[in-house]
Amino acid sequence: MNRITRRRLITVAAAAAVLPGRRGHADAVEAVWRGRALGAEATIKLIGAPDRAEGAIAAAQRTLASVEAQFSLYRASSALSRLNRTSRLIGPDASFLSLMASCGRVHDLTDGRFDPTLQPVWALLAEHRGRPDPAALETARRRVGWQRVAVTAQAVHLTGPGMALTLNGIAQGYATDRVAAVLAAHGFEAVLVDIGELKGAGRPWRVGIADPVAGLIEERRLDGRAIATSSPASLAFGQGGIGHILDPSGRTEPRWRTVSVEADSATLADGLSTAMCLMAPTAIRAAMAAEPTIRRVVAVGSDGAVNRFG
Q1: The whole model's pTM is what?
Q2: C-alpha to C-alpha distances, 123 to 35, 105, 165, nearest whole angstrom
């Protein structure tokens, strides 16, 4: 289930590398927290004064709990679950409105290939292990359409019958950005947040990009940027079923085996890495031209060829 488990102990490595840069504290240490958030393994690493590490990690955990309370599909009490049950969320939290705006931005950048209203199709495929009745699948597809999500400061309204949202393709990135901001507010400039998507700041954190077939493709160094990676075949509906990344139109299979997006925002990188699995090279380049904070895209074809954009 998508929930944060019991509070984990913070491991402080007294022999960790000294934090370089502006503050120059010789007693800086690395603190590490591991847990779960939004159904993913989560790791937070930070370097700084040891007496502030516990408070910063506790604040990060509270932030993760608040994200779960808003966006979890598996909590009946979450704001998202309430919206899906009743088609209307009155007085949405500022974080919900912020993520709705990000969804709209990614939807526009990907020409509609990113569409959180896919939840009815997703739920049907999951229920029938990827082999639903064709008529039922067509009914579910008619419920898809981001343009029928009405968002105001007063309410979020799903205006079509049987509509529902999933934010699983973007909420982990949003959580990553939120946690990184909280740690920075607590004075930790050197942080690495990994909640399925990664964001690093304050030093060049070394991270890897992996493909399910080829393994490690390359290494990158993150400093003030985020990376998100999606592989359609990494999760399938049933044995030998279709992959979990779906075209909203139902007409297109994924073009790429793996897509990794590097951007300033983990939220943006998360949503784009999902949708770009369905996008041709020309469409990827068009999205990058429209949004300069997309720094780099790596796409692995079905033949194993690695394509780099940016």
Answers
A1: 0.88
A2: 27, 24, 11
